User: What shape does this take?
Amino acid sequence: MEPTSRPRVKICCISNVAEAKLALRYGADALGLVARMPSGPGVISESTIAEIAAIIPPSVGSFLLTSELNVADIVTQQQRCRVNTLQIVDRLEQGRFEDLRAALPGVSLVQVIHVTGEESIDEACHIAEQGVDALLLDSGDQRLPVKVLGGTGRTHDWTISRRIRESINVPLFLAGGLRAENVAIAIEEVQPFGVDVCSSLRTNSLLDEAKLSAFLNEVRKTPH
Assistant: This one.
């Protein structure tokens, strides 16, 4: 799909209500809330996720990043956290997306594809046909002894991302190593529906208002 307006902006790794309010004040379209992960930054408790999700307006995406592999476990996790979007960072091993859809009507489903090479194109095309609302391309690697499922701060091959975007019929978010200095180039190269950023907006692990402002200004300057 060709974008018809500026890309949506998802600010990930939100750690508390104050950070959520800061991101919302700057016009973030979605906030990412990281539950238990095998590795990576930004993990917070489910009680904190629920507290933050409760103050996010319905018009803004509240994304729960879940590494659970079983649909039943994802359903109960969403019911505890009360988010409006599930970001599934690993591959489902038990259950199907349609099972999630039936159990959680009104909750959006976003599947992460970790772009490791050409094989990611086929994986993305297959998942896009399974009833998800969007894909999110990131730079993790599920093949490692300790899985890396996001928050790497590394870019991946955007030419593959572009080919994925051109091959699917659902919206696509681009993540992985985005920062104010490269986000305009990434948008031009991939033309994603949305961009997702975490580590580059932080100083000493805290959301940095100046970096947040600079990133959003660069996105807003991209052609509509």
Observations:
- The first strand starts at residue 8 and ends at 11.
- The first helix runs from residue 17 to 25.
